[in-house]
Amino acid sequence: MEQLSAFWQFLADNRSKLLELLLEHIGLTFLSLVLAAVVAIPLGIYITRHKRLAGAVLGIAGILQTIPSIALLGFMIPLLGIGLKPAIFALFLYALLPIIRNTYTGIEEVDVSVREAALGIGLTGRQILRQVELPLALPVIFAGLRTATVINVGVAALAAYIGAGGLGEFIFGGIALNNSVMILAGAIPAALLAVIFDQLLGLLQHSRLGNAGKMGRVALILIPLLSSSYFWPQAYGPGWKAGFDPEFIGRPDGYPHLVDTYGLSFNTTILSSALMYKAVERGEVDFIGGYSTDDRIKAYELAMLEDDRHAFPPYFCIPLVGEVVAREHPEVVDAVNLLAGRISDSVMTELNYRVDFDKVSPEVVAREFLQSLQLWRPDRAQGGERLAIGSKIFTEQYILVELFSQLINGYTDLDTDLKPGLGGTKICFDALRAGEIALYPEYTGTGLLVLLSPPQDTIQQVITEPDAVYHYVQRELAAQYGVKCLAPLGFNNTYALMARKEMAQRLGLEKISQLAGFSGQ
Amino acid sequence: MIEARGLTKHFGNFTAVHELSFRLEEGDTLMLIGPSGCGKTTTLKMINRLIAPSAGAVFVDGRNILEQPVEAMRRRMGYVIQDIGLFPHYTVAENIGVVPRLLKWKPARIQERVGVLLEQLGLPPAEYAHKYPHQLSGGQQQRVGIARALAAEPPIVLMDEPFGALDPLTRQQARRDFREIEELRSKTVIMVTHDIEEAFEMGSFIGLLDKGEMQQLGRPQELLLQPANDFVRAFLAEKAAQLELQAVTLADVFPELSIGERPDGIFLEIPSETPLLQALYQLARQGAATVVGLTAHHGQDRWFQLDALFELFRKTLRRWNN
Fold first, then answer.
1. Of residues B321, B322, B314, B4, the one with CA closest to residue B158
2. How far is A118 from chain B (nearest CA, A)?
3. Which ipTM value was assigned to this complex?
4. In CA terms, which of A246, A326, B247, B261 is 20 to 30 Å from B33?
5. Hey, is the C-beta of A111 within 8 angstroms of any chain B C-beta?
6. By the CB < 8 Å criterion, does A374 face chain B?
7. Which residues contact A77 (CB under 8 A, 6 or more apart)?
8. 0.90 exceeded by the pTM?
9. The pLDDT of residue B241
10. Residue of chain B minimizing CA distance to A112
11. What's the pLDDT at B158?
12. Do A123 and B98 touch (CB under 8 A)?
């Protein structure tokens, strides 16, 4: 009951956003569907005329269909960048198979004698196609379009992952923030869309064949309208274009705090943290909310704007360990503490660079780093008790997990299970408290604002002072949740608003507060 | 007028039809008959170019159809197939109107033509014009198929076992209806059949094929009475046995035999209990058109000649089947 009222409350609070996402979702679905139909129906017809190609064409379309959608979307990024284009293209590829296959089988299933009679009484090939084969195949082709629509509504939810918007923004945001109401706010409308479109197309499909003309006219008006709906929200979205990851958008210390502190407004796009650097480099967005230790800042020639009003707290990296584990295995605490203060901002950036650009695995990078510090030791014992180590889903965390694991393996009799890439802060923290993981790397600012979220005046007392934040977080996490903070590793990976260096210099931007003076492009 | 000259079809090494020739005038009906795989359907499909001949040509009114636009040529030939092939998404009226529409007839003319045909075929337009094929019986569908073939008033109609898919009772009814279509009398019809009765009932000519070659082409009585070779004799003898007409005797048709003054010629007395078919053979064996058969029944005398007796035979055949 409480969930339900929270759900309605969320929808009411976010109704303009919901409408925008809904329109984007419909637009993505239909734009790709129209493109797919334009290609797939003629292709399906073509292979009924050239049967030797049928196997190959259906085979290729079938293979495209089996590529996991998230992988296909990821694969599009180097080719088409982020945003609308790659999303439409991926959805287009998914919609191909059902339409080609149904066009082909629909025409193939036309009775041989009907075709022979048509030929024998003097219809041309084109007339047979238009007057006999297509009308008879229409219900089957329509069934293909229905299948493609339902698939596309589903896959379009993933388009948010590459910045194309749609209801997936709520779903990804909800997962990152462990906010089930937000997930439902994306998932329920998406499911409803699928059901409604399926039913509508079903109605059209089963309307009498004689009404094919009317059906065509309705489709002719409706489909371009639905396809263009993606662009409606954009039509009145002024201001800077900014890309943020779902967690940043939803976290109290993230986007809302940034906007409040500086009185800014952005035309925001949700992007996965892995993609946003690329997006800003390519000029698809003007700003991103990035992480200050990310190697791509240098590689892509990005500039960090100074947080001159301290919207963001310090984010010193601290390993968090469950109290029970810390008590039963003090050797784990000792092993991880070997890293205390050993990783500076520039070192962390360098390690990230090794993984992101040199394509060295996090495991090797971690080992080489430990060796350079003369901390590395071979695995001390096999088959010991297993300790699960979790992390969030970005490069730095993958490396930290490896560092922790190799130290624990080298300095204790325990073995480790790695569970990197967990969906967000809440997920990691809940897993730690539930004992599903024993350890994960966290940041002081996140501990303060997300995990503890004390009253505003408490925050103001400590926020400018890194040590104060650390001590507060250490004390309160232990007191409230029974979680032990280990010593900071040394680097501060703060949120930062970033832009292309070239643009920042051209506009003379150095501090975030300057942005208020610009109204956007 | 339609003429085939040296029609030949090879499928790889297999010769389906070899050097087939015939010539038909307006109003003629040619029944192509023969064992399975004899090439009769292939021959028919070469006439409207559903199968391209390997050699030979077909002339319609003196013009080679191979040199004409294929669709236009087909629209001047009606085409009826065993499986009918009505367009399931068209009403009866729309199905019949397909070719006139392709020929850009005015809608009013099409509607009128459809009405006339439906009336002729015993499907009252008010009841049937707007039905869909699946709402009709097999026999009714076949009649619509025939109406579709006739719609654009083609001078030539090709039919591939048009009654083959119907059950025996419906088939007889369909054949009867078919014979009664006035329009067909002025058309050149070429029909493929495997049914000897059908061939004799309906054909003004019968072409008997075997292994792709025309064994005999002629009037029905020529085939029956003057078989060109052993194959024809054997084929007809075997089939004739199935005609069940062995039991019909001269006595049965006695009232229809001629009475009164006899023409000159050789007289041959045949007992009235002789089966009709046998009487025909006896007359034919004499070899002359001037042979006059004589018979007596219940103290009355009647006479008959070969052609007249054959007509009686055909009539009986029809009556029998009806």
1. B4
2. 8
3. 0.80
4. B247
5. yes
6. no
7. A86, A162, A275, A278
8. no
9. 58
10. B85
11. 94
12. yes
Residues A294 and A169 placed together within one structural domain of the fold:
no
Interface of A with B in 172-211 (CB under 8 A): 209
Q: Please, are residues A162 and A271 in contact by the beta-carbon 8 Å criterion? A: yes
What confidence category does residue A481 fall into, taking pLDDT thresholds of 50, 70 and 90? very high
Residue B30 token pair:
């040619």
Which residues of B fall below an 8 Å CB-CB distance to A? 48, 50, 71-75, 78-79, 81-89, 98-99, 102, 145, 148-149, 158
The sign one gets for the Cα dihedral B55, B56, B60, B62 is positive
Instruction: Evaluate whether A165 touches A21 at the Cβ level (below 8 Å).
Output: yes
d(CA A44, CA A41): 5
Residue A237 has pLDDT above 60, yes or no: no
- Residue B81's closest chain A neighbor by CA? A117
Domain range enclosing A152: 2-236
Tell the burial category of B59 from Cβ atoms under 10 Å away from its Cβ (0-12, 13-18, 19+): middle
Residues 123-142 of A with CB under 8 A from B: 123-124, 127, 131-132, 135-136
- The minimal CB distance from B102 to the residues A122, A132, A209 is found for A122
Same domain, A322 and A226: no
Chain B positions touching A106 (Cβ under 8 A) are none
Mean pLDDT value of segment B42-61? 93
Q: Same domain, yes or no, for A306 and A363?
A: no
Tell me, yes or no, if A109 comes closer than 8 A to chain B by beta carbon: no
- The H-or-E segment that residue A441 falls in is strand A439-443
d(CA A106, nearest CA chain B) in Å: 14
Provide the pLDDT confidence category of residue A234 given band limits of 50, 70 and 90.
low
Could you give the CA distance from residue B80 to residue B313 in angstroms, rounded to a whole number? 28
Q: Looking at the complex, report in whole angstroms how far the Cα of residue A206 sits from the nearest Cα belonging to chain B.
A: 14
Orientation angle between helical segments A84-108 and A134-156, nearest 10 degrees? 150
In a shared domain, residues A77 and A225? yes
CB contact under 8 A, A121 and B79: yes
Tell me whether strands A317-322 and A483-485 are parallel, antiparallel or unpaired: antiparallel
Helix (H, G, I), strand (E, B) or coil at B159: strand
A338 and A474 housed in the same domain: yes
Measured CA to CA in angstroms, residue A287 lies from A249, A311, B28, B228 at distances of 13, 16, 88, 98
Residue where the block lists tokens 């495991």: A363
Q: How many domains does chain A have?
A: 3
A165 and A29 in a common domain: yes
